[in-house]
Structures are given as C-alpha cells and as structure tokens.
Amino acid sequence: MKLGCHAVLFKERIKEDTENIIKLLSSTGFKGSEIGSRFFGTDDKEYLLNILDRYNYQITGMHIGSPLEEWDINCEETTNKILKVAEFVKDMPNKNVIMSTKRFSGTQEQLIKAAKNINNAAIKCQEMGVKLNLHNHIWEFENDGYIFNTLVEYAPNLNLGLDLGWVYASGFDPIEVVENHADRISYVHLRDINENNEFVDLGEGIIDFNKLLKVLRNTLGEDGWAVVEYEHGEQDINRYIRAYNFLEKQM
C-alpha cells in the first residue's frame, strides 16, 4: 500500500504555482498526490511530468466532478470529459481517474440509466489501461446506501475509490464496506472525524486507523493508494507532514 495526499488543499495554486506546490508535497514523506482537473486542467501534461520527475514524485490520479444527472441526459459529452482525464493519466505510473458525483434527485429508472452509462465509460477507460474510480460523499450512502448500491450493481466495471471519512460520517462501517467490496478497491481517501461528525486532521478524531490500515494493506496490496484528503482549512504543508508521520506510526 502506498501513501499519498491530495493537492486539493492548495486549490488553484497547483496550477498557478505548480513547481513550488509539488516541491512542498514531495517534502511530506508521501510518494504522490491526487490533483483535480478543475484546478490543473488537462492541457499541461508534459510540463507537469517534467516537474514530477525533478522531485521524484507521482500523481496518484486525477479527480473530476461528474453529476449523475449528466450521465442520464448528456451522456456523450459527460463520457468525453471522463475520457479526456483518462487520456491525461494513461501514460503515468498510476492510471486512475477519480470521479465524484453530486446529490441526485431523479427517479430510480434515471439512476439505473446513469449507472449503465458510467459502466460503459469505465469499460472505455479500461481499454486505455485506466481505472475509473467512484469517489463517494455522504449522499451515496443515504437511504441505506441506495445510490451507492445501485452504482455497484449496474456499473460492475466501475472501481470504488472510497472516501472512508464520508463512509464513516454516513453511519456505515468503513472496514465492513471495504471488506464487502475488496475486489473493486485499489484506491481510497483517508480522513478523520470527531464526535460531532466534523472532519479533523488525522489522529485528532475517533477513527481507529490502526485497525483500518491493517484491512487496507490486505485490500490495496503493494500498488494500491491510500490518499489523505484535507480539503479545507489552513494551507499548511505541516498538516500533511503530521498526517504522514501519524500513519507511519499506525503501520
């Protein structure tokens, strides 16, 4: 299992000040970072690769937001957006597209149609050697996991890039969810949460990472990624340094 951190903490700075941000991220102990297509875009691949090579650092994957409604009503354009990100990562060591959704208010029929269209996109990604991973938030697990379970059933080629902090916040057991879907998991996000269901830095909350990491090591194997995501708060690289040191002690 490889440990990474998410560049989303630095928002648009990953685009505006790429080299300095990669330099900072590479100083944490983590081996790679996820970046967002909404911040970096997909036009400056060679520029990024040169910087990554300079600092012996990797991109763990690229994130893209993709509302479920769009998979129902605008499938072709939505698929093309996914494939554009897949094209960006396909020549990298870690060929991961991380796709998140938004709250869905459509019918079950529309959701099933969206899931089937996502599955077709996942197959096209596979043909490029790329994994399409679902990054969940809390809403996929509402109503006893209705959306999550529908996507699992009707998009069997979709990998599950679980955000285990959101899984915990939804009232589900992250370990149980991982174990139930282990064959579809090679990429996860790590967060910690306090008793008020608020995200906090790793080690400051109530998640048992010692127990969780044991399960993740078995599930992810040598090549899978566990990526710490700090989305909000102070843009201080020391937060990620502390997170790395915390995880190392737990392992």
UniProtKB/TrEMBL annotation:
Top-rank lineage group of the source organism: Bacteria
Annotated GO MF terms: isomerase activity
Name recorded for this polypeptide: Sugar phosphate isomerase/epimerase
All residue ranges annotated as the Xylose isomerase-like TIM barrel domain in the record: 23-247
Keywords assigned: Isomerase
PANTHER family named in the record: HYDROXYPYRUVATE ISOMERASE, INOSOSE DEHYDRATASE
Keyword Isomerase: yes
Source organism: Vallitalea guaymasensis
InterPro entries: IolE/XylAMocC-like, Xyl_isomerase-like_sf, Xyl_isomerase-like_TIM-brl
